[in-house]
Amino acid sequence: MSPGNSTVVVTDEDLKNDYQWDAATVPEKSDYLKKLKLTQTIGTSLFHLLAAYGLLFRLFEPQWKTFAWFWIIAHLTGIATGCGMHRYWTHRSFQATLPLRFFFTFFYAMAGQVTIKHWVRDHRTHHKFSETDADPYDSRRGYFFSHIGWYLTTKHPMVIEKGSKIDISDLKKDPLIVFHDKYFQLNRLILCYTLPTLVPTYFWGESLWISFLANCVRYCYVLNAMWSINSLAHFQGHRPYDKTMRPRNNLFVSLVTLGEGWHNFHHSFPWDYRSTEDRSLFNPNKHFVDLMAKLGWAYNLKISTDDVIRKKIKRTGDGSHQWGTVGGVPIFGSSEHEPY
What we know:
This protein is mainly alpha-helical. Helices cover 55% and strands 5% of the residues.
């Protein structure tokens, strides 16, 4: 389809093979010898200590323009991760033109996480083998492991075995991803650590030390916000669409991730670019994709019909679903269902 065709309605059957949960192929939970990734552990700990120092002892020293700068960067990197890495590259819930893909690649590099292929492969593995030994963020191993422990330790052998079979051939054909991954360390050094720090210093005379500390806070905030999807959204919240799975709808996670916390819906309908059918809920990432569609930069936006969603709720929901509410408590706007 061309960019002029913006919305594609799909059903469970249309994408069953792409998103079929495959936990039956993984043995029951087993222990394994975790080893710390020493360099990653030291680096991550150091940045978190610097961020904590900045928050506790230097919070009111930055200029207002410095606060604004890092607030903007945090949200742009959040959009690049939530819309780009998650909704676009992992789930292909819409198509993106070259300018939008460049935006995603640039600001994802500024987020300073892992390579695009690494991120997408792990997340596709997570969906296909959720809550098993093959799940990179397996929440059965506890809150700490699903939040950050998986990032600091070696993977379970089953994650490596099953993950190696996940198809990422589409990523290998994208020249932007090839470039990003080839020069990943250099991109991260310049775009995540150096450039955001130097802008306040060069343009409005901010102290280099204060700017660096503010960048550490920004960097760690975005990391932990995204990690909360794997941890908090698998432990706290309602399961209005499927009570048989651990992922939950969590308002707090949605607030800090710009809408990625409606996680029970997302695991039920991972191809749906909206991540929730209810437009009264907080979901800036969905609105960003809608804006890109109006500009012609995003197209073939995949959605599930209300009929498919209602059947899922009736079949496996926990009884908490009410249109426009979470757990029966109105969050934003009307409590009546307003489909997209």
